[in-house]
Design goal:
The protein has 394 residues and is of the alpha/beta class. It has 18 helices and five strands. The protein has helices at residues 17-25, 46-64, 77-84, 99-111, 125-128, 137-147, 182-194, 200-203, 216-220, 226-240, 244-266, 287-294, 301-313, 318-331, 336-346, 352-363, 376-383, 388-393, and strands at 3-7, 29-36, 70-75, 90-94, 113-117. It is globular and about 60 Å long.
Amino acid sequence: MGAVVWYRNDLRVDDHEALRSACEEHDTIRAVYIKHQKKRDFERGTQQARFEQETLENLASHLSQIGITLDILEGKVHEVLDSYVQPDDTVYFHKMTGTEEAASEKYIEDKYSTRSFETQTLHRREDIGSDELKRVFTAFRKRVEAKGTFYDPLDPPSGIDVMKEESVAANPEIAFPFRGGESAGRARLREYLAEPVFTYKETRNGFLRNDSSKLSAWLANGSLSSRRVMAELQKAEREKGANESTYWLYFELLWRDFFHLTMRETGSRLFRSGGLQEGQRTWKRDEAAVERWIEGETGVPFVDAFMNEIRETGWMSNRGRQIVASYLIHELKQDWRIGAQYFEQQLVDYDVASNYGNWAFIAGVGNATRTPRFDPVFQQQRYDPNQDFTKRWT
């Protein structure tokens, strides 16, 4: 009998219950990651692909320290696993958010011996209470903060040095200059918690490297766990003092949890035209208008700057995402899901729950009871008054 550690959006060795358990219970361990082949509405961004490749290389290096080979395969998940898993193997994996992910999990659980674990979110479903998950963020936040439950992250299996590789390969010309991989993620976490986090609330709407943590990229593919981020944040607060900014980083982790737990409850509903709201919505689909938006040729400089940035770097600030989403939906009157699909193929920090949750919010079909609208001219005057960012990307 052997163990198969099935990797997905948990591309790390630290705080990895599935890997730890497999190492404790088996002598023979294989690890596999499947690049799922699926029809794409937009061409995948080169920066997203680069970040994934760097992450997999880093993971393979860490696993090799304890004699485990990471097999990277391509194809349909069910077919690949059926040819890879032996009848007497036990498959170890983490539960993931998403309808396709849940379907794959059920298939494997029905066919093979499995051990599954929950580490994708900071809080768990049982932390919220026995009644239905509250679909308003404030209610959710108050619930989990009142309970105050945190889970300590697990150290990597003995013999693995996560910090052995710390090259971040910074490019000072862009806001996201970082390499993919657990080592780079841990290095960035250390760097950010050393000083920039203590002014995060004041800088979070800016567009530079340290204006925000950028940790979402490593959280999205699981090369950092939210439990590890929270543990290191609490350590920094104990050593240097907590303030509104350090709380605000936790606040952002709460938003991530909220989107994940909501999607787990509502399944595929968020992919509908009407999102989580009752009934269907009719949206326009003007290919020429969408193309101008993608190419940064709308004629609105602030919008175009952000769209050029994401195309070139795979990154866009949260403020920028709100502005360009609002423009596509409310000014161009286009289907919000088109924008969500484009971001899915471009962002280095693409996360299904956060991405679709935020797009649905701007479209007024998500959790919120209001429909936000962002005037790009006003936003530019407020957040880029000297047009430094706008000129850089136009």
